[in-house]
Design a protein that fits this description.
This protein is an all-alpha fold and 237 residues long. The chain has 12 helices and 2 strands. The N and C termini lie far apart (74 Å).
């Protein structure tokens, strides 16, 4: 899975700073690193659905800082840790200044279509021109729903439809090698809206369970008090 800072670190020629042993990012296990970063993203989507009126910019900044901290922890106390920490701060500054990623999350609902449909230089094109024209339209309905209501329960289903549409365009119009890279960019194994819905539903079930439990405790105590009161009256105490 590819993330905004991972792409930037690579494009800025800083990959040598974060590479550790095979299968590691700095001192962290690669899979564990990506899983923790995915959690940062998921927290954003959960918060966005639970509090659609809250400032998206605020939630986005929380996600960015969370992701940055995940990587910073992995490189701290490594040989190049101090240098990379400063470079990460500068990279985050670049991302925030451009605003493209914030727009992706706050206006487009986090769809990865921009990354997979950006038109490259002519000599680097490995997909037919119609791919770059048609793929962005895969997200039109989703974006419309998202902008009307970020908490819309249909977004889980619609997100899947967008990814399936983009995958179809990739397979139809792109060379095999390019298709593999583009599908990686789609992160097709992760639907943040379905995952967020599961977390929210589980939280509601837990809350309801606690409420029922508390209600049962009150009923039991009330019954015991009534029994005690009845006994006291019976014996004239």
């Amino acid at each position: 899975m590819y993330y905004w800072y991972w792409r930037l670190v690579t494009s800025l020629g800083l990959l040598w700073l974060v590479r550790g042993e095979q299968g590691k990012i700095g001192k962290c296990d690669r899979d564990d690193f990506f899983e923790k970063d995915r959690q940062c993203k998921l927290n954003f989507f959960v918060s966005r659905k639970q509090n659609p009126q809250e400032s998206c910019t605020t939630l986005y900044l929380h996600m960015v800082n969370c992701s940055k901290n995940v990587l910073a922890i992995c490189v701290e106390e490594t040989e190049s840790g101090a240098d990379l920490t400063g470079l990460l701060d500068a990279t985050v500054g670049i991302v925030l200044a451009k605003g493209d990623e914030e727009n992706k999350y706050c206006r487009e609902g986090g769809l990865p279509l921009t990354a997979v449909s950006k038109v490259p230089l002519a000599q680097e094109k490995r997909c037919a021109d119609r791919y770059y024209r048609q793929t962005p339209t895969c997200g039109d309905d989703f974006i419309s729903r998202f902008q009307q209501n970020p908490a819309d329960e249909s977004l889980c289903r619609e997100y899947t439809r967008v990814i399936d549409c983009a995958k179809f365009k990739i397979e139809q119009y792109c060379e095999r090698a390019e298709a593999k890279d583009l599908r990686n960019e789609l992160s097709e194994d992760f639907n943040p809206y379905c995952e967020a819905d599961k977390i929210i539903a589980e939280a509601k079930r837990s809350s309801a369970s606690c409420t029922v439990h508390a209600g049962n405790v009150i009923v039991v105590w009330t019954s015991l008090i009534l029994i005690l009161w009845s006994v006291l009256r019976t014996y004239g105490l």
